[in-house]
Amino acid sequence: MLVNPDSGQVERYEIMLTDVSLTLNGSTSEVSNGSLPVAVLLDSGSQLSQVPSDIVDNIAAVLGLTSSDLRNGFPCDMFSEYSADDTSNDIFSFSFDNGTTYVNVPFHELIVPDTNDGGSVTDQNGNIVCVLGMVPLAPGPPTYDSSYILGDTFLRSAYVAYDIDNLEIYVGKTVFNSTTSNITSE
């Protein structure tokens, strides 16, 4: 929870992110490297996720992206070898509660086409430009006005329930393409 310093009211519900890893072609890379745990805000109003800068740097290194690629984007087809299928094993894995809860986000959810005035951005060769669906937040403790955020790029793969009475958040994995339902309440 994050309390507004002016009103003293709980205005944000945060959860502890304890690990982030990236699995491509069956090979897993740890990308959080000691920058976690951190409290993150789950925000459906944010298209991208905002995470510690060293996580973005480590992901870029694994993917072979340069700092220019992170700033200006990169051709979307650069990663066409990885599946755009939600059942693929090419995933970002976000862990909470020291690994007892995790959410796998399909790789393609974090490679986002860049847009400008509603249209696709293209490079000088006519290639559609994509950006990484995570942007860095500068080192240092987040403040009330600048928090780590898991936005839509994460939330499309998560099932989130807010228990307002007990001030708790529950996070679970989304089951894509399910033909049955097994949601229970106690």
Automatic annotation (TrEMBL):
**Pfam families the record matches:** Asp
Family listed: Belongs to the peptidase A1 family.
- State if Lipid biosynthesis is listed as a keyword: no
What are the record keywords, sorted?
Answer: Aspartyl protease, Hydrolase, Protease
Q: Which GO terms describe its molecular function?
A: aspartic-type endopeptidase activity
Q: Where is the Peptidase A1 domain positioned along the sequence?
A: 1-172
**GO BP, one annotated term:** proteolysis
Q: What is this protein called?
A: Peptidase A1 domain-containing protein
In terms of SUPFAM superfamilies, this protein maps to:
Acid proteases
Q: Does the keyword Hydrolase apply?
A: yes
Q: Where is the chain membrane-spanning?
A: none
